[in-house]
Amino acid sequence: MAKRKVEKDVRDDPRYHDTRKLLKKYRDVTWSLELSVQKLKNQFNVEYGTSIEDFLDTVYLAGADLGGTELEHHAQCIERSHKMLQLLDSAVELLRTRHKNGEIYYWLLYYTYLSPQQFRNTEEIIAQLQPYIRDISYRTYYRRQKEAISALSSVLWGYTTQDNLDILELFFPST
């Protein structure tokens, strides 16, 4: 008798909806994206003696197709990374402007994960947060950080976040 393959629900996979992991990668992705764009521009200038923009204008005017080329693949990778960063940035901005604790959460996420330079330790982050959160202790910092990430998760993933699945199951039990 053949065994049936049981498909797992994507919501049960802990790799999905991990907002903290996404935030931890933000600086690296931003840096990598900037390097990739700069490298591509320099490579173009050296190889073709022109800017990418001028080259693409010429190619499109000539009716050439760059489909399937290394150039197209590299441009698509850069575009995907850029779109991911835009999605996260817009979610953070929505949290900042619409959530009741948005301004506090924004600065907490900014100094912890989003600022261009990473701070060495929690003490430095707390010092930066002083103008926005008075008398912030280590416990308050970690509690607020967890709240901010949870709120951002709701913006990014809606009510399918891991924390909300149990609540949804109470209202809408699966059969």
How much of the polypeptide forms β-strand, as a percent range? Answer: under 5%
The separation of the N and C termini measures 26 Å
Structural class based on helices, strands and sheet pairing: mainly alpha
Q: What's the helix-strand series? A: HHHHHHH
Overall helicity: 55-70%
**Rg (C-alpha, Å):** 22 Å
Q: Count every helix, treating DSSP H or I runs of 4 or more residues as helices.
A: 7
User: Biggest β-sheet: count, sense, barrel?
Assistant: none
Shape: elongated
What is the typical, i.e. mean, pLDDT?
81
Q: Unreliable segments (pLDDT under 50, ≥5 consecutive)?
A: none
- Tell me how many strands there are: 0
Describe the structure.
Helix 1 crosses helix 3 and helix 3 packs across helix 6 (138-157). The protein is an all-alpha fold and 175 residues long. The model has no long low-confidence stretch (mean pLDDT 81). The chain is built from seven helices and no strands. The protein has helices at residues 19-48, 52-62, 70-98, 102-114, 122-129, 138-157, 162-171.
Quick overview:
It contains 7 helices and no strands. It has 175 residues and is mainly alpha-helical. α4 (102-114) crosses α6.
